[in-house]
Specification:
Blueprint: E1 4-13, E2 20-28, E3 31-36, E4 41-52, E5 67-74, E6 81-88, E7 92-97, E8 102-113, H1 117-122
Antiparallel strand pairs: 1-2, 2-3, 3-4, 4-8, 5-6, 6-7, 7-8
Bound molecules: zinc ion (ZN) (2 copies).
The site of one zinc ion has 8 residues, from loops.
Amino acid sequence: MGERFVYTRHRTTCYHCGQEADQIIKAVRPQAQVICANCGATRIFIPRTSEVGKKGLYTRIGCYDLWELTTDALCRNCGVAGHHELAIGCNHFTVRCSNCGFTHFYKFNLEYIGKCPIDMEESP
Ligand SMILES: [Zn+2]
Ligand SMILES: [Zn+2]
């Protein structure tokens, strides 16, 4: 718990403040978050399932652009630290290991603006 799994950022137009700003993307085992660096709009995703799956298995049409990103992370299935594919939409957040295909699927849980106590323990 609390172990950092994914930490990256994606510069895009924020759905909340409408500014072009870094959206900070981070995930640990029990939770994934996307936070606007400009306005603090935060979306929380909670784990739903994880399994070895095909690419695009959980990709669905969202209510706005799907972000498809890549980042380096340590896979807990195959133990390789390497390329992971992120797919973030309005209802889901998936992280897939490019090496073994192990996919973490997080489901949208809630959103809020500003700091939340949950965020404190995950901060560097
Ligand atoms: Zn914003
Ligand atoms: Zn793997």
